[in-house]
């Protein structure tokens, strides 16, 4: 019975930790109203770094080039592609006079290093305000640049945006991908609004060129295979220089992975960067994930043994209800309403997936971005 008592009180503590996260941190974004961005005409350099993306570029690049914004250039970086990416760039440059092409060749020191390619693109850009997205991304409106640029104010040097994934009907994998994206976004938006910005996503991220040079570019994490977005934000973002932009017109959508193995490979690269976050961020994020995992493990064990099951059921239901409200409101805000009813189910599988990724990353190295 002593062992069961320990499990029970551990479960109570875990539920309290989870409630603290949801009611103190994650509610910040859930109940935050989008701030109407100011009309802006600051010159913007949109930067797209692509490696072997000819088909995606043909489909999605026009949505960037046809933005309704008075003054912007599009810096197209070809990161040593072996397909026709460069030819696609050149084709579009014949039709648009605001394109700048940066053709990157592999070097021995920076072989297949996206950060090296991005550095060359940033240096070649003409303007001080940089807006980043990926080759498989499309802005949901033609006012994307206007929305993101409008979030820059006098002291703001970083703007965190939302990059979602397109929906695929009757696909559990697609729902898992989109739920994990919503949960991540609710975290980095909430932490930023709480004065502790820790990451952003390169699918929709903006910062200034002076800030990039202040950081000496990506030099502090150049050898890390990924993290051109989140590690830069983790290094340079503060409560005073970071803004969030989550108006529906500011979103981008990307092509989601079609197979579980491809998604796991992508997430392994993303998760590998967390080890390089600031210690305070690693602690808070690690405690949140550990408490998620233990909530399910201890809850299931106690319920299966029917130990103080009335209290366990009540605490279990309370935590699920709070999560449903907080993440549900965030999901609706990010145009992911179809996920709300499945939140507990999706969370369970995402937690198991993250555990598998964590174990795998401890035993083998991740590869380069492409």
TrEMBL record:
Domain of life according to the entry:
Bacteria
Ranges that cross the membrane: 6-26, 283-305, 339-360
Q: What is this protein called?
A: Glycosyltransferase
EC number(s) in its UniProt entry?
2.4.-.-
Matches recorded under InterPro entries: Glyco_trans_2-like, Nucleotide-diphossugar_trans
| KW Acyltransferase (keyword) present | no
Q: Provide the Glycosyltransferase 2-like domain boundaries.
A: 45-178
KW Transmembrane (keyword) present: yes
Citing just one GO molecular function, the answer is: glycosyltransferase activity
Q: Which UniProt keywords apply?
A: Glycosyltransferase, Membrane, Transferase, Transmembrane, Transmembrane helix
